[in-house]
Prior knowledge:
The complex is a heterodimer of chains A (459) and B (791). By secondary structure, chain A is an alpha/beta fold. Chain A contains 20 helices and nine strands. Helix content of chain A is 41%, strand content 11%. In chain A, the strands form two sheets. Chain A has a five-stranded mixed β-sheet, with helices on both faces. Chain A has a four-stranded parallel β-sheet with strand order 3-2-1-4, with helices on both faces. Chain B is of the alpha/beta class. Among the domains of chain B are: 4-78, Ubiquitin-like (UB roll), CATH 3.10.20.740; 281-346 and 476-666, Rossmann fold, CATH 3.40.50; 350-469, 3-Layer(aba) Sandwich (Dimethylsulfoxide Reductase, domain 2); 693-788, Beta Barrel (Barwin-like endoglucanases). Chain B is built from 23 helices and 36 strands. The longest helix of chain B is centred in the middle third of the chain and has 18 residues, at 289-306. Classes of the chains: A alpha/beta (459), B alpha/beta (791). Chains A and B meet through helix 15, helix 16 and helix 17 of A and helix 2 of B.
Amino acid sequence: MAELILTKRMLERPHDAHTLEGYEASGGYLALRQVLADMTPEQVHAEVKTSGLRGRGGAGFPAGVKWGFVPADSFPRYLVINGDEGEPGTFKDRMLMERDPHQLVEGVIISCFALQAEHAFIYCRGEMDLAYRHLCDAVAAAEAAGYLGRGILGSDFDCRITVHRAAGAYICGEETALLESLEGLRGWPRMRPPFPAVAGLYAKPTVVNNVETISNVPHIAARGGAWYASMGTEKSTGTRLFCLSGHVNRPGNYEIELGTTFRELFDRWGKGIRDGNELKAFVPGGASAPWFDASSVDLPLDMDVVQQHGSMLGSGAVMVMDHTTDIVRAAWRLVKFFAHESCGQCTPCREGTDWLEEIMERLLDGRGRPSDIGLLIDVSDNISPGLTWPPAQTTICPLGPSATAPIASTIRLFPGDYERLVAGNEDLEPAESTGPAGPERTVAVTIGTKPDREAVAHG
Amino acid sequence: MAEQVTIQVDGQPIEATAGELLIAACEKGGVYIPRFCWHPRLRSVAMCRMCLVEVEGMRGLQPACYVPVADGMEVRTETAAVKKAQEGVLEFLLINHPLDCPVCDRGGECPLQDQTLAFGPGESRFVEEKRHFEKPIAISDLVLLDRERCIQCGRCVRAASEVAGDPLIDFSYRGNDTQITTFPDEPFKSYFSGNTVQVCPVGALTAAPYRFKARPWDVSSVETTCTACSVGCRGVLQQTRNTPVRFFGADIEATNWGWLCDKGRFGYEYVSHPDRLTRPTKGRVPVTWAEAIDEVADRVEDLRAGGGAAAAIGGARLTNEEAYALSKFMRVVCSTNDVDCQLDDGLPGAFVAGTQQRATVADLAGAAAIVLAAPDLKEELPVLYLRVRDAVVGGKVALHVAGGRQSGLDRFATTRVAAAADFDAAALPAEGDVVVVVGRQHLGQDTEALAAWAQGLVASLGGRARLMPVLRRANAHGALDMGLSPELLPGRVAVHDHQARERLSARWAGSFPLEAGRDTRAILEAAAAGRIDILFLVGADPLADLCDPDLALRGLEGARYVVVIDLFRTAASAHADLVLPAAGWGEVDGTVTNIEGRVQRVAANVVAPGQAASDAQLFREVAEALGIEFGCGTPQATMAEIAEVAPAYAGVKASAFRGRAGREGVLATPGSVTWTLVGDAQPAPSAAPGDGLALRVGRRLYDRGTLVSHCPSLAELGPGTVVCLHPDTAAARGLRDGDKVVATVGEATFEAAVVVDAAAVADVAFVPHAQGGDPLHLDASTTVALTKRAS
Lengths: 459, 791
């Protein structure tokens, strides 16, 4: 097992890792001193590229490559840290911001140096009060100590950090919605192009990185990209924080080397499935990720391998469900989340996610019709054509397609769980259309209120 | 010129301009891509997802409203994937749509209906409960919102914020609860709110005046020109059962781009008002038209025999053809040049008609700079405000504001000076066209000086200057062009122009003086002195509009015989010997001329009430009763005659208005009249004496004038009798917003409410004109004293 990188300090110094004293006492800001003394921005960028560090927010895009998209001669430019961690089952960035905020701050300063940005923003989820306070304290302490501000540590590098407390919308974790929100606008994802690297915050080149991603930067700067790349697999380097939740005996955040298998994660870190039950399904990478059943438990925690199997490591949230789980209800709960968090901008997501939720709810209420299973798939397909992963989408951002992931994957993996719910409900099917010969679809239009059993049956 | 490229759409080549949006290029090439949120005059947002197409080399489906075309682009709009996406989006849009089409104003002309029929799945699979909202809710005085019908396309939000600059509506809540809302305690108070109804692709936004009035298949429509002001916006007037029920903007590149102001949009209401004059009356006694014509003819005959004097005031409400008939009647039949379509409230007539390097509205966007020495355009010429705003909003065109009240355009201004005379031309860019917009900034203003200043500025800029003189009244520009001015003859020529008189003589069988006649003030002075035998008031009420109400009254009382031709009873008609009912906008065919000198058609769509008839008819019939061959039998005949005798209008022929190009009208060509300032410009008035404040009276879009007060939807929207003060000025007098004051102007007093307005000019009291109070005697040095009333 590789060493701990991100969580080492908070484990060794649980009481003062979040303070400047505790941080400095355990080697904090040495990386920044070293960078400012010995390295050029290009060298830092090169080390991050060499490290193979990939984004920890969900999409898993290599950070060094992303930084390279910023146009060479366009200033000012901004670094924005996405700390709007809000997906069900994901709780790692919060821990990093609460318990080791200086690690993030140092990462931001070094990253700004590499990007030649002089202003960074940390967009912190509004509900995370402690994280917000610790971040504010850390930034203030770093300023007082000369790690932030003008002419940092005697160099000619200026940098400041603004901590912004978000207002509670999941969609603002989408990078362009985050930028809109930061600008004081409604948190609606932007059409791309232009990409944020070209025209992001205030229409200036902007790099948006996740909290965990940037928390790795001081370590990479200090110890070299090659050191970091020596851990993990070829294209999934380093360690990652996995948020293990659900039916394991010991849920929690675990920093483990990439390439470990899910089985090891569940057994060694999670101490096995609860009550000795059987594993039925698990979500490999956050609420947006298509689910796996127990047959995928020996897959490695490797971004590319998981993607090849039709899902993603995403935000690193692994949710485990044992054989007692009502799969349809569990999927419904995630769909409900996405329907609630849809921003309402694009038609398919605004209307479709809510419709999916209502159909699922009807199924769970015992009012499902056999044709609803096909309907769920087709409605999902109208949001995410082909139901592939990574998704094709009819929408601006991937939130809509994310809502279809739990449905499409569970119908595929556990068709029986759905069929059981609609068995015997053939009489709920609507009457054949009596209108003029139309398309092959034959569901009658029902206007207004919820159909009751009799009215529909008698058509 | 942008690069022309060829793209392949469904295998067929389409010519397009590089960079234009795919959806627009396809439409021009004959391929219609369905859409809801995209509107050609609004920013693309790609929200509704209806216009998804496949573009070779681009992953997934692309919104055609967002993708710029590039040479060789291959686009597919009819594949199975595209069709499935279209059906999917339409099904999504309809699941929560109430489908109350049978009772929806939009039913029958609804883009959602139409595109569902063309691109939709035909049936819905939705059996859940639709979302419900309280409905409708009024979001402004004129617009109602039904949130159940709304498909969240945001066109209204963009029309309000981008086009009008009134960001007073926006989305609130999210996801399935997303809805259009106004801000708390802030109504959607915009002069352009009706545009949101027009761009709404469903029946979510409805106009209070039109709601439930008609179905689209029950109306008959004509395209016509709005005459609420002189911008000349094109629109479609619809009537059912001989009652106008709706007017909406037509997208004409030259003028209004499809937009209208609310006064223009809803101002059709007066046409069918029950108070319209429907038959001639003598005193309070109804008479027949024949009796009325006979009586006028007798009077005119006496006058012709005995050397008496006739005069006419007004004519800006008329079409060009009617104005021409009036002009001809006064000259040929009454042998006088005592005609004036302005009530001393515009600009010198010869200055306007004599404009040589005249600007078009389209010149605004192409200019390097705009100099605005004009009234608050938003209040007087609202769609011109939109076009100026569009030109200057991105900083593409520099704006220089020279005098006048502060307006919504000031925030875009590069320089601003308090009076036109203070403007420093050195602030203008060294190169590029400069458009100078000049108009009366307040009612008491010395516009001779203003015109001289504008003339000087234009002369100093040479060939790169363009002048846009703006008069507010409907067809004031056309009336001047038809010679309704004491110093002008039809065709922008001087009354003493021998060449012009020679041309007219072929059609004008009669003699009239070589010298300029009297203007409105002089006519009224003469009338007061008993020297006017017949006074025609043609759609004009000096008692309401002249800045000298005492003179107006003396004039009307002193005139021997007063004929009022109007749509409604007015203050002046009480002094009339004969009142004749006129047919007006929507009831007569003809042409009108806008601020650019653009001649556009107005079309009749309803029959005038009772015996109301075109003003031209009266003049023709009186002339013919006297045995004078008058012509002008039909608007078409008059139009042809004008083209014949007035070279500036030579191109204005019926054939010029045919087809697509004809919808933009015809620009009249410059005439030969010239204007110069006689004598010196008056010195600027000295500071207000004592504790009086300088008084400025200006127009607001909504007033208590004859037409607006007969539009029930608009009548109550004016500010009422108020005095607007700068915050410092108010504070210095211990006045607060809402305080009641007694204002004393000369011998007149009136009560008013104080409005503290940061846009007001310091040490000046601004009183909006015609808000229900009596007219005031005004000149450039008028002051007002304010006394706070104990509440």
